[in-house]
Every structure is written in structure tokens, then in C-alpha cells.
Amino acid sequence: MTSTKPISVGVSACLLGQEVRHDGGHKRDLFITGTLTRYFELVPVCPEMAIGLGVPRPPIRLKGKPDDIRVVGVKDPSLDVTDALRALGRQKAEELAFLSGYILKSKSPSCGMERVRLYPDAEGAPSAAGVGQYAAALMKARPLLPVEEEGRLHDPVLRENFIERVYTYHRWQCLIHDGLTAGRLVEFHTAHKFAILAHGPEIYRQLGRLVASAGQRALDDLAHEYIALLMQGLKKRASRRGHTNVLQHVQGYLKTKLDADDKAELGEVIDRYRRGQLPLVVPVTLLRHHFRKHPSAYIDKQIYLNPHPPELMLRNLI
After folding, report:
1. Neighbour count for residue 245 (Cβ, 10 Å)
2. Could you tell me the pTM of the whole model?
3. How far apart are the first and last CA of the chain?
4. Are 1 and 171 in contact (CB under 8 A)?
5. 185 near 222, Cβ under 8 Å?
6. DSSP annotation of 310
7. HEC string of 75-95?
């Protein structure tokens, strides 16, 4: 389930080193510019520049209550760009419908995904209950789109989770582009079964029940429900326990192929991963080695052992 189409990911322009901050600076992120540029087509957006604020410009901040946020000037509260940022978020959601993911600048009153400083209308200390209003409008308009902040991508588990979601969503977009059929939906789900199971047995069961109804209900409705449930389920971080469960399932496809010593070694490696003594890449690499020698048509179609390019080394630290 591969595609030659480029994987496009939106990104706050300052994270690419563009000098678009209110003070003329940038917030270049080395993981994004040094690593992700090799795998993704990055599409920069600076909402504040896009709505006509120049560089340098007066700084802005969030003010109000969590359910009634305004984006106003720090020194001049009469400068209110709330509606402009929200409108731009909706516009970009439609204009950039081809995106498979989005990386936002943390703590920004326009781009912050969560925990942005929110100042009360009256006197008092700010809370961390705000959301950047461009980001809020974008995420509301594109609820399936994998979205993350650059700071959270320095957490190995969150990084792997985001990249997995981007690749999964891209494969879905390619499926829709090529033409969805009930058979192709079943094929897509089958290929992702073990990847889904790593995120929890409940989401695995729910999606299985949905796919079982293919051919019995309107395909568009089924597909909409399926991808919404899938992308929501993948947001739950796969735990060590979840990965161990999948590794043991995959191991079962080798039970008649390996000799006693190889079985013991594989079992020990998986158990050492379960106990936190090895990263996930070790049992996955050993499984790949055995399946190269003992191919399985079913496992060969599974996304789990190759969910993203191994050169990203996302499983080396989890």
C-alpha cells in the first residue's frame, strides 16, 4: 500500500527558519528542517503575515475565557484579529485539502494547538487554557488531519505517533483518490490490522465490526465513519503492552517455521522489549529478518512492520 504521490505537511513558517515572527525572528526547528524535509513536502504558512500583519508588528495575545477568546494587541487591545485568523483557518483548510498533516508553532496566539497563555478580561494571572485561533479554526474544519506542535515532536512516543498518523492518513487519501470500493476498504483495513491493534483492542474490534458491514450499507457513509474512528483511535499512543501484544501475534505466523533456538531467541527479545530493556526496533528488526527467510503473504501485506521509513529511526527510542 504505497504511493508515489508526495506527502504534503503544513507547517508554521517560522519553524522553517522564515523570519516572520513579530520581532523579525524565527523559530527554526532542526528536526523539521533537518529530517522531515527529506520525506515530506512542507507547506509553510504564517497566519499573521497572511492576514496582513507585517514584520515587525505589534505582538498579539489571547484574551477572554476559554469559550470566548479574542486575539488582541498586547499594547493596543483595539487591535482585534480574531475573526481574520479564524477565517484564514477555514480558508486554508479548504485550500490545502491535500495536506496529510500539520505541524504548528506551540504557545502562539495564532498557531498554538493547546495550552496557549490566555489572559483574563479583568486583572489576574493568565491561564494555559487557550488555543491559537487560526489553529482552532483549521482543526475544526479538518478534524481528521493529523496535527501536532513542534515542541511535542521532541518526545519520541509523540513523534512516532504523529508520523504514523500522517502516513496512515496519506494512504487513505490515496485510496479515496484512486476510487473507493468495498473490496478496497476491506483490503486497507486488513493491511492496517496489527497497526490498529497496537493502539488498543477496543478500537480494533470497533473497526472490525464496521468493515464487516461493507457491502450492506452505503459505502460513503461507511467510509466516513471508518476513517473518523480510525484517526481518532490512532491518537491514543500505542503502549509497550499494546506493541507486545502485536509482536506476539506476529510471532505466531512463524511458529511452524523456526527451530527451537530461533523461537527461544525471538521470545526472549520480545519479552525484553516488554520489560523495557530493548527499544521496539529490535524485535521488529528480528521479525523482519525471519520473514525474509520464511515469507508470509499475510504478514507481507501488514503495515505494522513498515509503517514509515526506517531511516527516520522513530522506533529506536520507544
Report:
1. 19
2. 0.95
3. 25
4. yes
5. yes
6. G
7. CCCCCECHHHHHHHHHHHHHH
